[in-house]
Write a structure and sequence with these properties.
CATH superfamily of the largest domain: Isopropylmalate Dehydrogenase
Number of helices: 12
Structural class: alpha/beta
CATH architecture of the largest domain: 3-Layer(aba) Sandwich
Order of helices and strands: EHEHHEHEHEEEHEHEHEHEEHHH
Distance between the termini: 19 Å
Shape: globular
Length: 353
């Protein structure tokens, strides 16, 4: 097949890991007989420096004309002033809105060879294979904001249809897995969560009666995610809760550098990115872990291009490289010699080929 993939390297280690993902996608194209055209555009702090806009119109135009978008990371100390009128993160929120991607999928799977990289005991990690589905374009991140000399406010708003569509996405995914869905809210305090719970309970009973549903308050979910993670199959929650819980869940895998994400809407075109940040402290040193970005490329192959065999091949290559002992610094145990971003990428691509 032929596909146009827009690359948004962004800031910090974003360019390094995006380059790795591009190499793996090209290796997939060569192995399976596809033609992928890559187009690189500005995003985040790099775009602010170049043109004063974290999401230039040319970037939006390219993304809208593409089959899929792969993002590295945005942000860094240079642009971190919270009072700045223009910030890299505004570009990310704007891109999600422009693409209409409201469902953020963050899978968490434990590689046996990396069980020792997690701060949790190995027996707690046994059997962990969960998926967090985070609502991405509503809630407090997108609500009206006010600020004066002595007060500030952020408005959290959810419409019923926004809750219904994200719960349907999560339920359909659960039906292809272990048929278990955990909905996370804060209904004992927040009115938006009461609407979330009411809507979820009704929809699941009416449309997905065969799926086992568990409802947890977000503080309890945060605790159970560490104490009994293997009990979870699919977790669905609102924007801010999902943002926090998925960063917590990364510790199950040992490093944020291991985990991918896919942001999807009603069209096949999606936005794919590793869940880690720009890690400016290691930017340009060639030691970033590319596994999350490469795993995000696998999700791109699966969800936007419909190439399931190719996606599975990439995921298997990552697992094989890890099993062979390949380790970047973030997942290397004491006594293990870490390898570079480029060497980890080469190791994965060798197993792919």
């Amino acid at each position: 097949m032929e596909a146009v993939i827009v690359l948004l390297p962004g800031d910090g280690i974003g360019p390094d890991v995006t380059a790795s993902a591009r190499q793996t996608l090209q290796a997939v194209a060569d192995k399976f007989g596809h033609r992928f055209a890559f187009k690189e555009e500005l995003m985040g702090g790099a775009a602010i420096d170049a043109c004063g806009d974290p999401l230039p119109p040319a970037t939006i135009e390219s993304c809208m004309a593409s089959d899929a978008v792969l993002l590295g990371a945005v942000g860094g100390p240079k642009w971190s002033d919270p009072n700045a009128a223009v910030r890299p993160e505004q570009g990310l929120l704007g891109l999600r809105a422009a693409l209409g991607v409201y469902a953020n999928l963050r899978p968490v799977k434990i590689y046996d060879a990396l069980a020792g990289a997690s701060p949790l005991r190995a027996e707690i990690l046994d059997g962990v294979d969960l998926l967090v589905v985070r609502e991405l374009t509503g809630g407090i991140y997108f609500g009206a904001k006010t600020r004066d000399a002595d007060s500030a406010s952020d408005l959290c708003v959810y419409q019923r249809y926004e809750i219904e569509r994200i719960v349907r996405v999560a339920a359909k995914l659960a039906s292809t897995r272990r048929s278990k869905l955990c909905s996370v809210d804060k209904a004992n305090i927040l009115e938006t969560s009461r609407l979330w719970r009411e809507t979820t309970d009704r929809l699941m009973a009416d449309e997905f009666p065969d799926i086992e549903v568990e409802t947890l308050l977000v503080d309890a979910a945060a605790m159970h995610l560490m104490s009994r993670p293997s009990d979870f199959d699919v977790i669905v929650t609102e924007n801010m809760f999902g943002d926090i819980l998925t960063d917590e869940a990364s510790m199950l895998a040992g490093s944020m550098g291991m985990l991918p994400s896919a942001s999807l809407g009603d069209s096949a075109r999606g936005l794919y990115e590793p869940i880690h940040g720009s890690a400016p402290d290691i930017a340009g040193r060639g030691i970033a872990n590319p596994c999350g970005a490469i795993a995000s490329a696998a999700l791109l192959l699966r969800h936007s291009l419909g190439l399931e065999d190719e996606a599975c091949a990439v995921e298997s290559a990552i697992e094989d490289a890890i099993a062979s002992g390949a380790r970047t610094a973030d997942i290397a145990a004491a006594g293990e010699t870490p390898i570079s971003t480029a060497d980890m990428t080469d190791a994965i691509n060798r197993y792919l080929n």
